[in-house]
């Protein structure tokens, strides 16, 4: 069964179309990754699902019910971890979670239990009496999550929950995403970090300019672009290397440089390895190694959108 | 139930904001102490009344004789003494300030001679006499006798040719500490609007506004919760201030503390409503705060919070503090409630107007 069904969802800000006839189905039990560059329309889509902003047109169904006619039902069943940390600095971790969970009709010992469970879940049990102003970025992110899950929603939407945190907290969060999923929650996960999405998501949609441009498991997505390959060239000294001529080599789709490594993405069908090597030789740049690599999600994204995921 | 959670949260958040709390409590206490001490010369210093010596003269037996003797018997306490005298001796004693008051009874009515009409003992005598004359429906007059005018007075046969104070103005006068305890307390209620703005705009700054909108809580529940929380905290602040000034500084809050507190709370309501209105019509908390600072400071200046205003004009009555201070001082020092209802009306009217505007702007916007 599909827990969420978006049909021709559109959001215009004035003349600007942030989300453009977006259609998407998310099955129950999925960890669904929404992948897109800055401004692709991820947060806008999420805000329409959570009811924060009104759709210009289109339809959103949660568990088969239109959310416009079932606001309360939708609110009770959705938990949102906002992109920006949203907690009260003057309330303790416990009070923060309790306040928000309390708004969902939980009372008394049941409320207390669920609050403690949520804090335990994100690993803040021992700091439940502390104020967020004394928290690290990662701890704040975790509290931000606890505030969204204490009322035990069926659908949890996480909008870039790992921005700007230490690797330890990130692992903690990724593990809790899996755990929540095992407990029966469906999760929508947006991120800039390709590795995260590859690691946890069972289903992925790539969003660009407010549209879904590809959707499937990561294997399916990669198979879309099996006609491209990456050639990695490691050189001794990058000085004097001109990138533009490489781009004009037959079959080359994109070139990226990091340190002394040059990544050349090119059409699988064209045999251009000789031409590439020739270019380095004529420019008198010494090659250390050459490698051909399988495509990853990053290259899928690059191929589909023509730009890199992160600026 | 959501309203209650909201209210409770606002109370917690505000109480933990130490800066706001110091501003609402420590600051006014310091102001009362400083202004009360520094400006004490502008006020009557005697707060305790010594023995009051009253002379009286009766023109034969007249219709007031019986009631007046009853009255004397009734009020004769250890610190009030009556002495019979002659007409001239009485006036002379007043002119030389040898007695606190001289009462002349004749068939025309009662004349009271005092040396200084605004003195404490004079006020007491006037007050007593007013009570007496009200009771017996007599005509009473107070005549001020200045020492310089003594000769002229002696020569004259009728006291009515001299300065008369037909209206009797009973009551004690506040000393400077008493005065500032009242006017600073009323003033500080207005600054409570700042913490109301902080409560509303805090949700945007901390991004929690979105989280509230995601939850199954109505925007009006949020509005009312915030209002109640703010009222509660600001109300507690002013009560603590009154308590402190009454029991620690021993300032006079009169015999009708409940009325005084109600007036102060109506001012808290006014400030909270103003804060709500400004935070809902202005998205920018800096401009809301600026407007509140201007409003509160102008009101304070016009309302006599810094310097007492002897005869307030219409411009002073634009300030809610003029109304409140007058009402409170009248209740404390004259047991006079005539200014109370108009003050309530002003404050409630102002509050309702602000709240209506706040609700109107809340209805028109999508966010919190
Ligand atoms: N309230 C608004 N008014 C006008 N334009 C908006 C508004 N909200 C978003 N936009 C625009 O809509 C586009 C999509 O924004 P959105 O926040 O959905 O992107 P995103 O995919 O979440 O990006 P990011 O990865 O940076 O969070 C952006 O170009 C943004 O500038
Ligand atoms: Mg976003």
From TrEMBL, chain A:
The molecular function GO annotations come to: ATP binding; ATP hydrolysis activity
Q: What keywords are annotated for this sequence in UniProt?
A: ATP-binding, Nucleotide-binding
Provide the ABC transporter domain boundaries: 4-234
SUPFAM superfamilies registered for this protein in UniProt: P-loop containing nucleoside triphosphate hydrolases (SSF52540)
Q: Which InterPro entries match?
A: AAA+_ATPase, ABC_transporter-like_ATP-bd, ABC_transporter-like_CS, P-loop_NTPase
Q: Which Gene3D superfamilies match?
A: P-loop containing nucleotide triphosphate hydrolases
By its UniProt entry, which PROSITE patterns does this protein fall under? ABC_TRANSPORTER_1 (PS00211), ABC_TRANSPORTER_2 (PS50893)
Protein name, entry field: ABC-2 type transport system ATP-binding protein
TrEMBL record, chain B:
Q: Which ranges carry the ABC-2 type transporter transmembrane domain?
A: 20-360
- Transmembrane stretches in the record are 20-39, 179-202, 223-244, 256-278, 290-309, 344-362
**GO CC terms of this entry:** plasma membrane
- InterPro entries in the record, alphabetically? ABC-2_transporter_component (IPR051449), ABC2_TM (IPR013525)
The terms under GO molecular function for this entry are: ABC-type transporter activity
Q: Is DNA repair one of the keywords?
A: no
* Cell location: Cell membrane
Q: How does it sit in the membrane?
A: Multi-pass membrane protein
Pfam families, per this entry?
A: ABC2_membrane_3
Q: Which UniProt keywords apply?
A: Cell membrane, Membrane, Transmembrane, Transmembrane helix
* Protein's recorded name: ABC-2 type transport system permease protein
The record lists the organism as: Seinonella peptonophila
The record lists the lineage as: Bacteria, Bacillati, Bacillota, Bacilli, Bacillales
């Amino acid at each position: 069964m599909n827990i969420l069904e978006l049909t021709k969802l559109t959001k215009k800000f004035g003349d600007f179309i942030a989300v453009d006839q977006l259609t998407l189905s998310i099955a129950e039990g999925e960890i669904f990754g929404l992948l897109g560059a800055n401004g692709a329309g991820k947060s806008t889509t999420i805000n329409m699902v959570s009811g924060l902003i009104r759709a210009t047109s289109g339809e959103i169904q949660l568990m088969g019910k239109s959310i416009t006619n079932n606001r309360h039902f939708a609110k009770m069943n959705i938990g949102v971890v906002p992109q920006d940390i949203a907690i009260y600095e003057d309330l303790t971790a416990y009070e923060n979670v309790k306040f928000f969970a309390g708004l969902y009709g939980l009372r008394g010992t049941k409320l207390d239990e669920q609050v403690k469970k949520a804090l335990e879940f994100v690993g803040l049990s021992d700091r439940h009496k502390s104020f967020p102003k004394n928290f690290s970025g990662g701890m704040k992110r975790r509290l931000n999550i606890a505030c969204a899950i204490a009322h035990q929603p069926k659908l949890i939407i996480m909008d870039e929950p790992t921005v700007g945190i230490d690797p330890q907290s990130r692992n903690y969060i990724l593990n809790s995403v899996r755990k929540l999923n095992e407990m029966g929650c469906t999760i929508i996960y947006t991120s800039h970090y390709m590795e995260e999405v590859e690691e946890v998501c069972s289903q992925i949609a790539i969003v660009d300019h407010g549209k879904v441009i590809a959707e499937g498991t990561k294997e399916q997505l990669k198979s879309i672009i099996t006609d491209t390959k990456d050639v990695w060239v490691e050189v001794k000294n990058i000085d004097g290397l001109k990138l533009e001529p490489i781009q004009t080599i037959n079959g080359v789709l994109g070139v990226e440089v990091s340190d002394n490594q040059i990544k050349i993405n090119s059409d699988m069908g064209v045999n251009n390895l000789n031409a590439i090597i020739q270019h380095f030789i004529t420019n008198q740049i010494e090659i250390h190694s050459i490698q051909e690599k399988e495509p990853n999600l990053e290259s899928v994204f690059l191929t589909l959108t023509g730009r890199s995921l992160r600026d | 139930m959501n309203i209650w959670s909201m209210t409770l949260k606002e109370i917690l958040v505000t109480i933990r904001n130490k800066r706001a709390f110091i501003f609402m409590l420590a600051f006014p206490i310091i102001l009362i102490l400083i202004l009360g001490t520094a400006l004490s010369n502008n006020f009557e210093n005697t707060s305790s009344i010594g023995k009051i010596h009253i002379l009286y003269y009766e023109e034969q037996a007249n219709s007031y004789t019986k009631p007046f003797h009853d009255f004397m018997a009734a009020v004769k306490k250890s610190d009030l003494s009556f002495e019979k005298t002659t007409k001239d001796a009485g006036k002379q004693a007043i002119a030389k300030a040898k007695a606190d008051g001289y009462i002349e009874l004749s068939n025309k009515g009662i004349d009271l001679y005092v040396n200084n009409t605004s003195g404490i003992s004079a006020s007491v005598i006037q007050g007593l006499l007013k009570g007496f004359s009200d009771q017996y429906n007599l005509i009473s007059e107070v005549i001020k006798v200045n020492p310089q005018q003594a000769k002229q007075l002696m020569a004259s046969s009728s006291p009515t040719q001299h300065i008369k104070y037909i209206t009797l103005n009973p009551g004690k006068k506040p000393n400077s500490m008493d005065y500032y305890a009242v006017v600073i307390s009323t003033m500080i209620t207005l600054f409570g609007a700042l913490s109301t703005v902080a409560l509303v705009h805090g949700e945007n700054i901390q991004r929690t506004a979105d989280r509230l909108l995601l939850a199954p809580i109505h925007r009006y529940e949020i509005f009312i919760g915030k209002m109640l929380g703010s009222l509660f905290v600001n109300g507690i602040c002013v009560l603590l201030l009154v308590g402190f000034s009454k029991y620690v500084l021993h300032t006079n809050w009169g015999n009708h503390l409940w009325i005084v507190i109600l007036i102060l709370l109506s001012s808290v309501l006014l400030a909270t409503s103003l804060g709500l209105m400004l935070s809902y019509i202005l998205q920018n908390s800096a401009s809301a705060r600026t407007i509140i600072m201007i409003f509160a400071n102008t009101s304070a200046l016009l309302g006599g919070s810094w310097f007492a205003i002897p005869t307030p004009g219409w411009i002073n009555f634009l300030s809610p503090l003029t109304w409140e201070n007058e009402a409170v001082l009248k209740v404390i020092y004259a047991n006079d409630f005539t200014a109370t209802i108009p003050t309530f009306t002003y404050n409630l009217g102002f509050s309702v107007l602000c709240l209506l505007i706040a609700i109107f702007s809340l209805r028109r916007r999508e966010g919190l």
